[in-house]
Structure to design on (447 residues):
């Protein structure tokens, strides 16, 4: 079980123990419930609980860090001593080292006060039973994952900063198969009660039945309608590799030299907003600074970047609360992207499409080149031809190679169905469905 009081007490004890010039302590407690299942039986059921204490110190301008997975008083004392020893053994003082942050106004954090998502085997059994029963009723085989996660994080330092936050999330992913057809659906929410299990099962089964007997289509430039999970798997790379101030300074970002310019179509507005009601994530960053809502792109124009304290000092502005755990060479990273939705339903995006492709999900998306956000990956679990505004027969999966910068310049429609979606390699964004012209499918597949 989570123990906020014990986490706080361990952090306070570490600060009292440390004789360093400055000390920062981060205590994390993770509680995760994970269930993998098939239509026939559970495959994996676990509840795991992990604790981690990290101590970062400064001694005469030298910095050291140590961590432990043993959350006891003795282990934390040893961790403090090890961090100090590392600092003393560091051959050179850390360059341009800022003092640790002072206490911030409590109102800046906008703490949400969420309750933990408690493990509930009975609820899990009901959910899995309902999904697999619907799949069997339609002659489908089913497999999936149901998870719930709580992460408590406490950050304290010797300059008076002290903040704690609980991040919670639940997720269901269901894949169904029948004959040569496969369909998939997923839902993510801050709480277990935010997921409509029946809706997930209906979508997965419906896509499976429609995906049978898929036919190949020619690769090339297509109009695509991307459902939210497909959009999330693309936008994730813009978060990791685009909106950070250090990335722009180093010239590795697609925004290098373009801040203030029109970079996307005028229908695209993107914010980093952990406070969005559908978002998940901690309300402070790796330095304990409050995460602020940052309008990154407004009607296609790049307006702002995310900052940690180091880049904010260089830019002459304040931190936006996007530091990774320090010390780090990564610089600030956007972590809670929200793509502003349109006004219509997903079906409205189909209207006017004479010939296109509907994509349920992208699989194994990877970056080819960062300065144009050129990505590659494959469609998966529900790819359909669109003809004269109607979703038609299934098509075999396609590989794409596409600059996301160019794609977001050719957006011709945005749905009103924004929801929290996860991507294969981690990360969560709030995104709607999107229609894009001229999306490049570089090759086909045999499945």
């Amino acid at each position: 079980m989570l123990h906020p009081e014990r986490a706080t007490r361990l952090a306070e004890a570490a600060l009292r123990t440390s004789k360093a010039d400055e000390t920062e302590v981060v205590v994390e407690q993770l509680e995760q419930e994970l269930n993998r299942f098939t239509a026939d039986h559970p495959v994996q059921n676990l509840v795991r609980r992990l604790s981690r204490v990290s101590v970062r110190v400064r001694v005469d301008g030298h910095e050291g860090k140590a961590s432990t997975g043993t959350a006891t008083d003795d282990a934390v004392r040893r961790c403090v001593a090890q961090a100090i020893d590392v600092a003393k053994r560091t051959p050179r003082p850390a360059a341009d080292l800022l003092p640790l942050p002072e206490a911030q106004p409590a109102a800046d954090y906008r703490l949400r006060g969420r309750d933990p998502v408690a493990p509930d085997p009975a609820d899990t059994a009901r959910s899995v039973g309902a999904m697999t029963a619907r799949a069997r009723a339609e002659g489908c085989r089913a497999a999936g994952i149901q998870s719930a996660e709580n992460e408590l994080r406490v950050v304290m330092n010797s300059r008076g900063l002290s903040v704690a936050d609980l991040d919670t999330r639940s997720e269901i992913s269901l894949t169904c198969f029948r004959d040569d057809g496969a369909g998939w659906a997923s839902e993510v929410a801050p709480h277990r009660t935010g997921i409509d299990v029946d809706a997930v099962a209906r979508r997965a089964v419906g896509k499976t039945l429609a995906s049978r007997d898929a036919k190949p289509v020619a690769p090339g430039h297509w109009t695509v309608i991307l459902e939210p999970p497909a959009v999330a798997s693309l936008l994730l790379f813009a978060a990791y590799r685009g909106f950070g101030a250090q990335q722009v300074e180093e010239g590795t970002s697609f925004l290098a030299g373009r801040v203030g310019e029109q970079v996307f179509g005028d229908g695209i507005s993107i914010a980093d907003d952990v406070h969005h009601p559908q978002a998940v994530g901690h309300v402070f960053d790796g330095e304990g600074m409050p995460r602020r809502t940052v309008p990154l792109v407004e009607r296609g124009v790049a307006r702002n970047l995310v900052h940690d304290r180091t880049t904010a000092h260089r830019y002459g502005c304040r931190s936006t609360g996007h530091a990774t755990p320090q010390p780090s060479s990564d610089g600030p990273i956007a972590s809670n992207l929200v793509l502003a939705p349109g006004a219509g339903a997903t079906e409205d995006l189909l209207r006017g499409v004479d010939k296109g492709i509907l994509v349920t999900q992208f699989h194994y998306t990877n970056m080819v080149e960062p300065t144009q956000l050129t990505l590659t990956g494959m469609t998966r679990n529900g790819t359909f031809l669109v003809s004269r505004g109607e979703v038609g027969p299934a098509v075999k999966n396609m590989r794409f190679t596409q600059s996301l910068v160019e794609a977001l310049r050719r957006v011709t429609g945005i749905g009103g169905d924004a929801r929290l979606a996860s991507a294969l390699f981690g990360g969560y964004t709030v995104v709607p469905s999107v229609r894009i012209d001229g999306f490049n499918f570089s090759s086909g597949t045999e499945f």
Q: What stands out?
A: The mean pLDDT is 94. The two ends are 45 Å apart (CA to CA). The first strand starts at residue 22 and ends at 38.
